Amino acid sequence: xxxxxxxxxxxxxxxxxxxxxxxxxxxxxxxxxxxxxxxxxxxxxxxxxxxxxxxxxxxxxxxxxxxxxxxxxxxxxxxxxxxxxxxxxxxxxxxxxxxxxxxxxxxxxxxxxxxxxxxxxxxxxxxxxxxxxxxxxxxxxxxxxxxxxxxxxxxxxxxxxxxxxxxxxxxxxxxxxxxxxxxxxxxxxxxxxxxxxxxxxxxxxxxxxxxxxxxxxxxxxxxxxxxxxxxxxxxxxxxxxxxxxxxxxxxxxxxxxxxxxxxxxxxxxxxxxxxxxxxxxxxxxxxxxxxxxxxxxxxxxxxxxxxxxxxxxxxxxxxxxxxxxxxxxxxxxxxxxxxxxxxxxxxxxxxxxxxxxxxxxxxxxxxxxxxxxxxxxxxxxxxxxxxxxxxxxxxxxxxxxxxxxxxxxxxxxxxxxxxxxxxxxxxxxxxxxxxxxxxxxxxxxxxxxxxxxxxxxxxxxxxxxxxxxxxxxxxxxxxxxxxxxxxxxxxxxxxxxxxxxxxxxxxxxxxxxxxxxxxxxxxxxxxxxxxxxxxxxxxxxxxxxxxxxxxxxxxxxxxxxxxxxxxxxxxxxxxxxxxxxxxxxxxxxxxxxxxxxxxxxxxxxxxxxxxxxxxxxxxxxxxxxxxxxxxxxxxxxxxx
Length: 640
Known about the structure:
By secondary structure, the chain is of the alpha+beta class. It is built from 12 helices and 38 strands.
């Protein structure tokens, strides 16, 4: 008995020991994984060079230019469905793009049209963004003009950018070797690289756009909704019979107009399952209930494209049709007229007349889809548009893909060759946006993708009647004209040079320079403000959200801060970072609404920043990452 008890006891003890060992091993594996990913993240986040305290404002200045050029590139990519520079093979083919704003010549290439799939690849978009960043960055740096009096900065090589589309952000790395020396000889350092992370979830937004396009080519969802719309509308004949002796006729032009109206009104009610929409939204419905969830749309306009739709819950998707060109053909028809067939009764029913009809339609029209990733405390808002055609043939969906567009980001044409290949004369008029008066001596630059062409300064035209310039420019769609003049904010506008004789007005916003200062607030006592200490510096970046304006300053160098005088109230994004030369201490990130009257009467602006106080490196990193919500604890910038 003792032996048996002993055997049982040993087995029990051995099992407990083995279980403990397995638990310990599992914990070690889990802990190792956690530590690995933690240090991998730390390595990525700290992939920057340590700079001397005096050079921190220069580094922040470069970071701001990376941010500005990357954001403008992503904005262009979002507007056009993946492009900063539309290839001529697309821009030169009217059937390959949607001209959403015909008066401005702005074009959005189709992702699918006429049997051709043309979805730009992620690698192609990355190449477009890199080219845009490298081009815009040089203009933003502006030869380091804000530091000209204090530093001598020598570029050892041109900036080379790299972009990574990560799951929750976009990271931009820049190889840009600079030799920085203070003019008093106290500071000298070689800085080789920079990095900036934008909290824009481009990869997720682009992934959803691609999935919608893939499912549309499989599900024919919009074709089916189109066929439903005209099949149930009494003004659009399909198949029917009527006891009448009078022939029934319809005009194809009227049918087209009615269908366009149906599409314009109904397509915006399409919803992607799992995305953010309100099922209780009001829907005009004179014959029933008015909540979306209780109407026809709930049953027929909810589109399920993924088995795990929760991943899109912070996104909105909108489909629209705005009376854009439509191709429609009806059969049988003659000269745009559809006519019913008559049948008469015989013998005793000779008085009876019957008209029957059966029509089929071929229809093609463009749709614009917009994906809106809403802003949270972890990501910025971002909108991505893409366009495609809907095709119906003989009352049936017609989406067979016969070919695929090849995307190549390489372009061997030099800027000089491009700028010299002029084709059409374009006139640019320049005026003061606040007074409406004509202004001369505005230096203009024409931008088409990665090409920059200096086209000179404006002067008097029409015997002094107006100010501007007439110049032959290279062929370009979605081009940009930029204007610079002392005393005015840099201005830009989209232009198109594919037709001779076009004219555009470039409105320039005059600048008002204000004295400024930065005060800091402790996170533990935000109600109390203090001056910055001697070793603390602040970089201030302001970017217009409702106007085209950007400004940068490095405090505590006392200079005026420029603002654009507008005809209306303006909204800005203010981004300030407080540093002591060794690390970031705090800052301020928020939107700021400024009334035109307050700006007109102000002489000074006071910027407020929040600092964390004593903290570890990890605590400080978390604080800086959450700077926008922490900024709510301190006052917005004040005009005095």
